[in-house]
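job 3f2a | input accepted
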Amino acid sequence: MLRRRWTGQLLLALLLTTLAPLPAATQSFAAAPTATSDTRPTRAEADPSPVPLPSLRATTTQVASGLRRPTALAAPDDGTDRLFITEKSGTVRVYHPDTGLATAPLIDIRSAVDESGNERGLLGIAVPPDFADSHHLYVAYTARPDGAVTLARYRLDESRSEVLLSQPHSEYSDHNGGQLAFGPDGHLYWSIGDGGGSADPFRSGQRLDTLLGKVMRIDVSRGCAPLPYCVPGGNPFVGAPGAREEIWLYGLRNPWRFSFDRADGSMWIGDVGQGRWEEVDHLTPGEGGLNLGWSCHEGLEKFEGGDCVPGETYTEPVFTYSPYTGGCSVIGGHVYRGQKYADLVGGTYIATDYCSSTVWALRPGGEGGYEQAEIGEMPTQVTSIGTTVDGEFYAVNDLPGGLHRVAFAREEPACRVNLTIRTWGTGTTVDLTVTNTGSTPMNGWTLEFPLVLGQTVTSDWNTDLTQGSNTITATNTSHNATIAPGASITLGYLAAHTGDSSSPPRFMLNGDACAVGR
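job 3f2a | predicted structure (518 res):
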């Protein structure tokens, strides 16, 4: 299997909606609005790590099979070392590392769950901090008979569930979101997609009178009659005319998976795109009320025909990638805070993609930027990445339905690309020095890399170069086809730009990603 690792600076629908040409122009994002919160923990500094991201390798080992379309996993902090795994049909299975996957389900709510269509079903699970005493679990699912997206509390000691909150969602079966997680403030957060269909037909993302296209925050530790929960007083839209007070964030398309960094409380969101861009958002602890852009924007692009509110402020993603490179739906993961691989990936956010299975590693870098690298592959069709109580990683995949333990190791890249860049006006010249850092010669090579939006190659040298979408493919010429171990070749290109002259953030040589230098 080819190893794929891309590195550089920057940075469900479970299945991709139909790809359609969406002409777009870039638009700058303004600074984020003032945050609103009950608590404001301070973000920790980025973990010092001696291991560069491109020197990391992620691998998986299957530890259980026989799951029926698993969708999410969570770990109770009760001293049992168990994992709870949701299945699309409406059951929750239990895995223990010593005894494996239990046959009998812990929870069976199939009679309440509408699993029609690919994206409906039991979608999320969260374990409250007081689980050892309360024996409560929280589940998110699409409910019979019409697919309403539903949040319920399940009482294990009584084998019954109590619906807390429901959002009608009957027109389309996709974009249900479904992630549940308790934040560092003890409140429960829940994501719902924009209502489905293409191009946000209900204009849900920018509306505050619906829970579609949002992340909610509620207090489930008590009730505020007539509600079986309370709305925290620090929620950003409390008292706002016409707004749902449960809303914490808006402007999302399908935030299938989000998580909180247990070290600093910051929030990471994987938001599935329309067809041009998948995105990851990283928000400072306590940042409520932010507008993440959909459907005015998809990723960093202006979305043609989208809903743009004059004078609105949007918060930009920290990482985007194009599904034209093989992906289709970003699967948001977690920041690694375990002990076993702390010296390798401590403080690093790990995510994947449902179709490409690529493992992305992101780490906050200097000057507000992010280092990112492609560090391996997950099994096919991963739907969720979860952690044990100790912070170690597991993943579940849709078909054929397995549970996989995730491991990390150090493995040096087989190539390096150094760049020399000159910019002027609306043009930029980029010279590349490509070095074979491996131990075997390369006889014939192909170098692939993306350009930022608005750049178009007008000429090139020492290579046969083609541009497709936002991806460049450069192949060898007759005089530089072989790169011996330790040897280098040079090539380059001239590009026109529309204001952003940034250099390519990552390079892949013959299917293996390269370290990048300046």
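job 3f2a | DSSP finds two helices and 40 strands in the chain.
job 3f2a | closed
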